[in-house]
Amino acid sequence: MAFLTRNGLLAIGVATSVASAATASGQMPPLPLEDRNLASFAACRAALEAIWHQDIAKADPKPIAANGGERQTLISTKGVIPIDATHAEYAVEEGWQFRVPVPDAHQIRTTYSYDQRRYECAGKHLRGTSTQGYALEGYAPMEDKPAP
User: Fold this and answer.
1) Helix or strand or coil: residue 50?
2) What whole-number percentage of the chain has pLDDT above 90?
3) Each residue of 93-109: pLDDT tens digit?
4) Could you tell me which residue, 38 or 5, shows the higher pLDDT?
5) How far, in Å, CA of 28 to CA of 45, rounded?
6) Which among 102, 108, 98, 103 has a CA at the least distance from the CA of 141?
7) Lowest model confidence (mean pLDDT) among 84-88, 122-126, 135-139
8) How many alpha carbons fall within 13 Å on the CB side of residue 49?
9) Cα gap 30→93, rounded to integer Å
10) 22 has pLDDT over 90
11) Cα separation of 59 and 64, whole Å?
12) Which helix (H) or strand (E) holds 18?
């Protein structure tokens, strides 16, 4: 799975390390997000496009220093997908990765939680759901810093 960053770059390596480091996870049942009628299918599709643009703007292009480690917001989506003349869908996973050094163990502890949202337009009807979850923490070897 590829993750988009704010400037459109892919953060595949980060996602791969999270996926391989995670050995278990938890997930909540889906909850409704949207359920409304818009003026037309075109208005509904425009709403999906607006949500997509808001989501991709949330991605961090690189990890950000935080609390002695780093954090990064990752966005994974294929954008708005047209199904036919009156149907379209949009799915996104917004994930939050935190990496913190564990110096005594010479490891990096990684945690990841996410919100998977799915929206669909059926004619002028927009509906959506949200499923939240997490991966249990994983560990990776800490990279040695090169000598000055």
Assistant:
1) helix
2) 77
3) 999 999 999 999 999 99
4) 38
5) 28
6) 108
7) 135-139
8) 7
9) 13
10) no
11) 11
12) helix 12-21
CB atoms near residue 70 (< 10 Å): 18
pTM: 0.78
Place of tokens 């390390």: 17
Delimit the domains of the chain by residue range. Answer: 12-141
pLDDT higher than 50, residue 83: yes
CA-nearest of 44, 50, 132, 54 to 93 is 132
Distance CA 78, CA 12 (A): 15
Three-state SS for 62-87 is CCEEECCEEEEEEEEEEEEEEEECCE
The dihedral through the CA atoms of 11, 16, 21, 27 has a sign that is positive
Could you give phi then psi for residue 31, rounded to 5 degrees? Answer: -120, 145
